[in-house]
Amino acid sequence: QVDLVESGGGLVHSGGSLRLSCVASGRIDDIATMGWYRQAPGKQRELVATLTNESQTKYGEPYKGRFTLSRDNTKNAVDLQMTSLKPEDTGVYYCYAGEVATTGSYYAEDYWGKGILVTVSS
Questions:
Q1: What is the pLDDT of residue 88?
Q2: Burial of 37 (0-12, 13-18, 19+ CB in 10 A)
Q3: Residue 53 CB contacts under 8 Å (≥ 6 apart), including other chains
Q4: What is the number of other CB atoms lying within 10 angstroms of the CB of residue 60?
Q5: Helix or strand or coil: residue 108?
Q6: φ, ψ at 14 (rounded to 5°)
Q7: What whole-number distance in Å separates Cα of residue 44 and Cα of residue 40?
């Protein structure tokens, strides 16, 4: 079992900044991909940014140039620095860990955090 613990959400004015953090815990041997997704009310979950353990980064188009994803493989942690926030960035942000290999498990699995709310006021 792997747990993802998110922190750093909250309320911010338009143009402001926030930093989201996520730490994965458990009997983790390797995590192929870590990152964040966003879900707005009534919408599907969408990619914000992901970073592989081979340093390949992918950003959702609305977030390019404003958000920066960083990862600490030694801590199984990922941070999302969000700047120039807009009201349309409001939503629940979910930490994602993809293809997680754990000790004693034959298969790698994907995991999601519980989500953390980010609200950007206009």
A1: 96
A2: buried
A3: 30, 31, 32, 33, 73
A4: 16
A5: coil
A6: -55, 135
A7: 7
Residue 57: CB partners within 8 Å, gap ≥ 6? 49, 50, 51, 69
Q: Whole-angstrom Cα distance, residue 52 to residue 61?
A: 18
Listed as ranges, residues in the chain with pLDDT below 50 are: none
Residue 118's nearest CA partner among 42, 29, 16 is 16
According to the model, what pLDDT value does residue 119 have?
97
Dihedral angle sign, alpha carbons of residues 19, 38, 36, 9: positive
In this structure, the number of other CB atoms found within 10 A of the CB of residue 67 comes to: 22
Q: Which helix (H) or strand (E) holds 17?
A: none
